[in-house]
Every structure is written in structure tokens, then in C-alpha cells.
């Protein structure tokens, strides 16, 4: 038996915009997702927008029972900023009642809520003022965070400020996948910086208010592997790591921004506008724990051509297509469980062995009905294999001393996924889009047994 540490958190993650539904109802104001869908529905897979999603707004009580049925002891979701504070200032009482009741339901059923504050869902009222491009967003977020701590602090033990802050930076300001879909490296750096300061000021609010519990941040981590041991390739991997991972991980955990990153941005005239006391705030407001979303590694090589002035991260590193890679063909992501061991070691050796957990890991597969047996259960053995392989590596990391306290899959019930709609399914429960009906998959059974054993057989 490969036993995991006592009190290990086993569970799954989702987010408010991907699971609640009622996106224009019950006092919620639009986020960029609601607005973008209104403006350009053709960008969304099969016209599937953010309005309906999994409908946990209505069904959360039954869904918490489903978590309990598979013995999950923890669950992450987020609060929708636009539901709680529709105009950024006024509290929506209906949202307070909804979230309090939801979080209580989790607690009384022995499922620890891990509550995140921002999961790509920028309020439209703030986007109209410039979103993360403007400093005002930092204060607006700090106010929202404090409001959440005041209203729900008695129910939440683990808070996180952001989910994958690099994603709204790169998808919104470099690669065109999220609103406002611009391609502007300088803006992207400023957006990232304001996000970092919003995170920092939320942590400060949390410390100043002496709320119970702990606070962290959830980052997407794709360990960088160079094509070769050449100086150029290794340098490319180092910069890719600095830009994509250390840019948030270092300030969040160590309270510093890597000097090499600053030098590299300065050389390319990409440094953001900052305020005088920012560095002190960053230094004084580090996190208690880290969540790491791991799906795939990043393979890089030296850039093929370098533009002056620098116009994109590809001027620092190029993507390397490793010929030996194993791939999930539905999502197009490489499957490389070994990286999870490397993540565990990185946190142990470079980040003070801070407590951390795997906050997302999973496999999205299209048309899963193909794998349904005569009883109506999806036989998703590929997902079980995927998770087992990743857990083996995590176990190895824990055995080597990494301070990991949990593993969350993405996701609990099949959910709506941004521009991909419902194409790829990730859940332990299958979702019927017509009826909202949920059905346990084989992986859900497997997960329950894993939790009962607190480990792998
Ligand atoms: C993470 C996000 C999730 C989720 C997941 C799966 O990056 O935090 O919101 O969507 O990836 O990815 P996708 O839905 O794009 O297949």
C-alpha cells in the first residue's frame, strides 16, 4: 500500500462561473464571460455560453450529498465577484444567503470548503474601466476580498485569492483566447503586475483582520524542460520558468520578485508601472500555502528569431515539440506524470517546503458516452490510469519529504469550460445537458476506494 499522510485532503475543484449557472439571475451582474458570449457567441464551442453550466446554484445540496457518497473530504469552488458585489460596492443579500448555505452544507457533511476569490471572471463594470490594466482594480479586489472574509470567514478554513493568474494574463493579453483578446506584451506585464498586487493586498486584508484559517494562491505549474543541455536551450527554459511560474510563485511564497525576471523585462522595456510601497507589501504579505494545478509540462528550446523590440514571450523561448511525448488527443496536452515529482521537489527545495496541495489534475475526454456500459456507467479507465500515474509520482515526492497535504481532481461533475463548452469532460460524475442529471462514472468509484484506503494499492 502507498499510504498518503494522515488527514490528507482528497477532493475536487470547480469554479463559480463553471458550475453555478444562473449567470444573469438572482442579482448577479455580468462578467466578461457573460458579455463576451452576448457579443460574440460564435467564439464559443457549439454556442454553449456561461448562463446554464452545471446548475449547482439550485442543486448544491444534492451535489454535496454526491461528494459525501464518494467520501470526498474537501472541495474547492469560487465566489463570483459579480454575484456578491454586482456593482463592486453593494452587497447582494441573496448571494450572501446562497454562499453561506452552500458552505455550511459542505461543512456539516464533512467536506472542507476551499474558497477561491477569482477564477477568470472579471466583472464587466470593472472591465469597462480597463480591468487589470488599471490600478483601481487592485483596490476593488482588496475590498471584495475583505467583504468575503467578513461575510464567510467563520465558515472557511482555506482561502485562495486567484486561480491561475497567468491564464487571464496570457489568454487575455497575448494569445487571444479570453476577453479582451488583445496581443500586447507590455499590457500583459502590467495586467500580471496588478493581479499580483491585488493578490498581495487581499492577503494583507486577511492578516489585518485576524480572520481564522489560512490563505494561499493557486498557480498553474508547467515545469520547463529544455530540448537539450545546450546553454541556449537551458537559458530559454530558465526564462520560461521565470515568466510563467516564478513571476507569481516567488512573490507569493518568498516575498520577492526574481531579479533576473526584472532585468529581463527591463532590457526589453517591459517593466510595469508600480507604486512606491509595493515591494514592501509583497515582502510582508506572503501566503500560508500554495495550490498547484498540474496538467502538462512545458518543453522549450532557444528562440528561432528574436524581435527587437521584444513583442512576445516567444522572443525569449520557443515551444519544443518533443517527439517522444504521450498526448491526450482530445485536449492536445502532453501527459507526463513525472513532472509532479519535480514540482514536489521544487517546492521542497526552493520554496521553504511550504505546505502545498495539488489543486487541479485531470484528463478531459470528448464523447465519453462511447464508454458507457449496459448499466449506464461510463467506464473511464483512462482517467483512473491518468490519476494513478500522477499519484504515484506525488507519493514519491511526499516520501522524499515534500509537504503536500492534498490532491484535488479537476473536476467533480462535468462542467462548462470557457471557449470549449462541454466538449471535453473531466468529472467523476457525468452531466446530462438536457436534464441536469448526474451519474457516477467508474473513476468516481475508484476515487472513493482510494480515499477509503488513503492511498494507492
Ligand atoms: C484549468 C482551469 C479550469 C479548467 C481546467 C481544464 O486551467 O483552472 O478552469 O477549465 O483548466 O481545462 P479546460 O477546461 O480548458 O479543458
UniProtKB/TrEMBL annotation:
Protein's UniProt keywords contain Hydrolase: yes
Pfam families listed in its UniProt record: Glyco_hydro_1 (PF00232)
Biological processes per GO annotation: carbohydrate catabolic process
Keywords: Glycosidase, Hydrolase
Tagged with keyword Hydrolase: yes
One GO term describing the cellular component: cytosol
SUPFAM superfamilies: (Trans)glycosidases
InterPro entries per the UniProt record, alphabetical: GH (IPR017853), Glyco_hydro_1 (IPR001360)
Sequence similarity: Belongs to the glycosyl hydrolase 1 family.
Protein name per Swiss-Prot or TrEMBL: 6-phospho-beta-glucosidase
Source species of the chain: Candidatus Enterococcus dunnyi
Amino acid at each position: 500500500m502507498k499510504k498518503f499522510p494522515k488527514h490528507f485532503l482528497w477532493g475536487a475543484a470547480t469554479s463559480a462561473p463553471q458550475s453555478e449557472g444562473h449567470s444573469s439571475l438572482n442579482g448577479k451582474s455580468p462578467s466578461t464571460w457573460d458579455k463576451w458570449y452576448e457579443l460574440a457567441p460564435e467564439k464559443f464551442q457549439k454556442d454553449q455560453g456561461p448562463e446554464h453550466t452545471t446548475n449547482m446554484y439550485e442543486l448544491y445540496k444534492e451535489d454535496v450529498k454526491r461528494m459525501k457518497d464518494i467520501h470526498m473530504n474537501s472541495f474547492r469552488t469560487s465566489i463570483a465577484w459579480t454575484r456578491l458585489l454586482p456593482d463592486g460596492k453593494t452587497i447582494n443579500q441573496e448571494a450572501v444567503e446562497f454562499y453561506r448555505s452552500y458552505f455550511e452544507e459542505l461543512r456539516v457533511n464533512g467536506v472542507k470548503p476551499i474558497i477561491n476569490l477569482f477564477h477568470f471572471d472579471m466583472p464587466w463594470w470593472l472591465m469597462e474601466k480597463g480591468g487589470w490594466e488599471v490600478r483601481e482594480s487592485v483596490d476593488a479586489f482588496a475590498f471584495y476580498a475583505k467583504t468575503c472574509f467578513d461575510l464567510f470567514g467563520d465558515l472557511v478554513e482555506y482561502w485562495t485569492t486567484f486561480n491561475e493568474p497567468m491564464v487571464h494574463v496570457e489568454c487575455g493579453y497575448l494569445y487571444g483566447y479570453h476577453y479582451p483578446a488583445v496581443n500586447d506584451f507590455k499590457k500583459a506585464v502590467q495586467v500580471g503586475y496588478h493581479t499580483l498586487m491585488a493578490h498581495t493586498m487581499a492577503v494583507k486584508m486577511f492578516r489585518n483582520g485576524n480572520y481564522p484559517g489560512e490563505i494561499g494562491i493557486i498557480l498553474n505549474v508547467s515545469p520547463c524542460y529544455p530540448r537539450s543541455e545546450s546553454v541556449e536551450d537551458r537559458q530559454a527554459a530558465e526564462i520560461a520558468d521565470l515568466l510563467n511560474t516564478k513571476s507569481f510563485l516567488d512573490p507569493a511564497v518568498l516575498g520577492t520578485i526574481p531579479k533576473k525576471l526584472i532585468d529581463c523585462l527591463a532590457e526589453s522595456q517591459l517593466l510595469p508601472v508600480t507604486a512606491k510601497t509595493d515591494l514592501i507589501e509583497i515582502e510582508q504579505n506572503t501566503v500560508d500555502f500554495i495550490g498547484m494545478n498540474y496538467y502538462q509540462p512545458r518543453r522549450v528550446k532557444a528562440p528561432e528569431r528574436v524581435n527587437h523590440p521584444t513583442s512576445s514571450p516567444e522572443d525569449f523561448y520557443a515551444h519544443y515539440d518533443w517527439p517522444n511525448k504521450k498526448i491526450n488527443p482530445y485536449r492536445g496536452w502532453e501527459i507526463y506524470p513525472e513532472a509532479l515529482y519535480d514540482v514536489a521537489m521544487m517546492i521542497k527545495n526552493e520554496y521553504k517546503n511550504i505546505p502545498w496541495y495539488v489543486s487541479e489534475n485531470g484528463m478531459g475526454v470528448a464523447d465519453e458516452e462511447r464508454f458507457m456500459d449496459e448499466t449506464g456507467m461510463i467506464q473511464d479507465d483512462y482517467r483512473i490510469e491518468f490519476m494513478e500515474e500522477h499519484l504515484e509520482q506525488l507519493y514519491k515526492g511526499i516520501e522524499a519529504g515534500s509537504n503536500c497535504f492534498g490532491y484535488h481532481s479537476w473536476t467533480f461533475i462535468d462542467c462548462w469550460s470557457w471557449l470549449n463548452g462541454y466538449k471535453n469532460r473531466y468529472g467523476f460524475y457525468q452531466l446530462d445537458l438536457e436534464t441536469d442529471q448526474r451519474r457516477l462514472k467508474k473513476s468516481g468509484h475508484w476515487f472513493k476506494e482510494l480515499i477509503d484506503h488513503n492511498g494507492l494499492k
